[in-house]
What we know:
By secondary structure, this protein is α/β, with parallel strands linked by helices. The chain has helices at 8-13, 15-20, 26-35, 69-84, 114-124, 137-150, 179-188, 214-219, 223-234, and strands at 42-44, 56-59, 93-99, 103-105, 108-110, 128-131, 158-160, 193-200, 204-208.
Amino acid sequence: MIQYPVPWDQVYSLWPHVVNGTRRNVDDFSGKIVAKMVPGPQLLGLENLPESPRFVLVANHYQRKGLWIIHVASALTQIVAERYGRQVDPPVHWMVTANWPPLKVGPWKFPSPGDILLPRVAHALSCFPVSFAGNNPAYTASTLKGILRAADKLERPIGIFPEGVAGSAGTLTDPLPGVDRFMALLAKRGWPALPAGISEEGRFVIRMGKLVAVDEMVAAPDAAKLLMGRVAELMK
């Protein structure tokens, strides 16, 4: 299997922004990560990218040793930047896990250090932070409400890995609780969804599927499962 090194130079480039509360240019950040991915990902189905960039980009959480989720997200981000232009940053507003379960030492619990660091990293990369599944529902609910309020003004896709961190290379897991309702609410605000399947066939492959219309999402018994089914069809 292909082994991509961790892009430590780009990780370190976030530090001044984490400290100062500023934003890193996501197009530049993701572009530099993709530039070092040799061989680069094979991109299929790019003709399915819609005319409007106002859609939800839905992909499987494909990660293994030597292929970090940051490589996947960066490649998807560059697809969007190339298609819709680089004048708007970030190219994709990703939803990321930035609140983790507490650390346990005997009978004591301590907040995870990531609860301080990860929201700052999310801010630096213009991401929407949510909590680890079931860890802090109020934190996630606040973020989701914020996304829905901002949806009318966003000019680029919202990116989501519905499986969350439980997803791994080559195996689909169920969407996280709440993703169904969230996707349906976005659909009611006029946001269709574009599925992307991540797989490997001797190299890292991204297949973009056909746009799922808002009416289909709203009518579905479970919008998240509908979309993950479309993603599964692209993981050939």
